[in-house]
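Attaching the record inline, Q. Sequence:
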Amino acid sequence: MKSFMKILWVLALMLTFLFLFGLIYTHETKIKTKTRDTPFLVHKVIKGDSLFRLSRKYVVNIGDIRKINGFPSNRRLLKPGQILLIPKPNLKAYKGVASWYGPGFHGKRMANGEIFNQNEILIAHRNWPLGTKVLLTNLDNGETAIAQVKDRGPYTKDKKGQYTRDIDCSFGLAKRLGFLKEGLTDVKIIPLSLEN
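Structure, as predicted:
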């Protein structure tokens, strides 16, 4: 009876190994085939990452991350070192209104987890992925600068509930673009790249 149990245990162990090897192999194959011709970012999971945090960071639906990576709907745990595919956002250049922020937020934590330095060159955007680099052109005076989305905002609305501004520039960026005194300016916002 003991030898029969040992054989069953060895068979169960072998089947488990083959099952896990199959999962790893198919997961790696999916990554190779999907990244070739499709618009995905590759994200290496670090400690503290969750599907929710990644969906906020990259501004994508959690369901899309699950679907692309073949996760069941109840999967929540990610393992450090794991490679995930994230759909790239479809960002297009546009004209909008920029405001600036600084003194009241200096030293506070931003949406990306860093501490806000009002003299740094950065912007806040409501929905573009954190880490996106953009080229900004002040349409009133022609000044340009490259900045990175590191925070969320602006959230100022008019009486109808419509947002009145598209981006918030740091004090340092507003100074470089030359609209500190005015407080608001028309800008052209061109996405350059997404720092992954």
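Confidence is low (pLDDT under 50) at residues 23-37. The domain at 26-87 is CATH 3.10.350.10 (Membrane-bound Lytic Murein Transglycosylase D; Chain A).

More tomorrow.
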